[in-house]
């Protein structure tokens, strides 16, 4: 599977919009399968319950909506007012009832999707700045959202694994992460296994690979 992650075929804008739709549906299905008591259980992300994680994904939709507004109007609108506010909002969300979090997820995802539908081709080319301070075209926002809903659907620890994610998404994600980590083709080729496990390893998530070197945090 390493050859797939060494390829240079770019993901497309339409790919990203499709992955957002698939990831939103998958994430919604996963939280819908949880009982009220399940929400306070640990997610697979250190220090976060499932409620923390869902609150983060909801807030992310609204934050990306700020970037879409920026692209539409030309008026700067950052994702978050500050790191401190972002963290405080997630902590507050972790105490909300399951039904409120579920409704917030649905509402925020629908609002983001509707806002993206309204952008013109020219507006998609407008520059925005991510929470990491990186300047990117607004057309990268769907990819940013696709990563959130699909990867965090796995992080819910509610039965979904990387093997359940679209293969073309895994290829695109794996290519991006290996580039960010600066892994050479030789280093990647030394790790052999199924594509979902290789991408999980690259993303710093649990995997079943043998003798794969430990990687630091990603995203």
UniProtKB/TrEMBL annotation:
The keyword Transmembrane helix does not apply. SUPFAM superfamilies: DinB/YfiT-like putative metalloenzymes. Keywords: Isomerase, Pyruvate. Residues 29-157 form the Mycothiol-dependent maleylpyruvate isomerase metal-binding domain. Pfam families: MDMPI_N. One of its GO terms (molecular function) is metal ion binding. This is Maleylpyruvate isomerase family mycothiol-dependent enzyme.
């Amino acid at each position: 599977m390493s050859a797939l992650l060494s390829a240079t075929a770019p993901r497309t804008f339409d790919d990203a919009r499709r992955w957002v739709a698939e990831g939103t549906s998958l994430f919604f299905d996963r939280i819908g399968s949880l009982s009220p008591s399940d929400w306070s259980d640990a997610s697979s992300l250190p220090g976060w319950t499932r409620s923390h994680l869902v609150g983060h994904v909801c807030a992310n939709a609204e934050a990306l909506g700020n970037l879409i507004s920026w692209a539409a109007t030309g008026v700067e609108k950052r994702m978050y007012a500050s790191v401190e506010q972002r963290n405080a909002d997630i902590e507050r969300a972790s105490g909300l009832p399951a039904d409120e979090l579920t409704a917030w997820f649905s509402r925020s995802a629908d609002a983001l999707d509707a806002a993206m539908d309204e952008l013109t081709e020219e507006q998609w080319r407008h520059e925005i700045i991510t929470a990491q301070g990186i300047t990117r075209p607004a057309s990268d926002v769907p990819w940013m959202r696709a990563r959130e809903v699909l990867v965090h659907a796995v992080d819910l620890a509610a039965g979904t694994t990387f093997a359940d994610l679209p293969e073309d998404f895994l290829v695109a994600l794996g290519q991006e992460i290996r580039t960010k980590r600066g892994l050479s083709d030789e280093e990647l080729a030394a790790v052999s296994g199924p594509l979902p496990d290789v991408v999980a390893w690259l993303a710093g998530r649990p995997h079943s690979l043998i003798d794969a070197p430990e990687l630091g945090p990603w995203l």
